[in-house]
Amino acid sequence: MTDFSCVITSGGDTEGAGGADALRASVASVLGQSLRGAEAVVVLAAGVSAPTRTAARALADSSPGRVRLIRPDPAARTTGALRNAGLDAATGRYVLVLTPGERLHRHACRNLWQAGERSRADLVAGRWSRTVGEGGKEQEPPWQDELYARSRTVARFADAPGLVVRDAMVTGFCLRREAARRHGLRYEEDLAHGEILFGPLAAAAVGRIALVRRLIVTGRAVPDRARDLTALVEAHRRVAAALDAHGLPALREERERAFVREHLVPLARSFPRLPAARRARVAATAARVLTAPVPRELPPLERVAATLLARGDAEGVLTAAYALSRPVTVCAPVVTGEGGRVEWDDRCPVDVTELGYQYREFGAARLMNRLTRCTAEEGRLLLEGRLVLPPRTAPDAPFTATLEFRARGGARAVAFPVDDVRRDGNGVTWGARADVARLLRPLGVRDTAWDARLILEAGGIRSVSDLFAPQDLVEGAVRFTARPRLGQLAGDTWEPYITLKDHLALRLTARRRPARTTRRLVRYATHFRPARKAKLLVRALRKRLDRYRSRGFKTAAYNTWLTRLPVRRGSVVLESHMGRCYGDSPRALHEEIRRQGLKLRSTWSYDTSPAGFPDDARLVRRWSWRYLWALARAEYWVDNQGFPQALRKPARTTYLQTWHGSAYKRMGFDETRVRLQDALQRERLQQAVHRFDHFLVRSEHDVATLARAYRLPEDRLLRTGYPRNDALIAERARTETEGRLPRPPLAGALGIDDHRKVVLYAPTFRGGPAGGKQARRRLLLDVREFADRFGDMYTLLVRAHYLEAARLPVCPPGTVIDVSRHHDVSEVLALADVLVTDYSSIMFDFALLDRPVILYAPDLDTYAAERGSYFDLREKAPGPVVATQEELFAELAEVKKSDIRHAPQRAAFAQEFGAYDRGDAARRVVAAVFSPQGASRTTDHHRQGAGR
Question: Against a cut of 0.85, is the pTM above it?
Answer without folding.
Answer: no
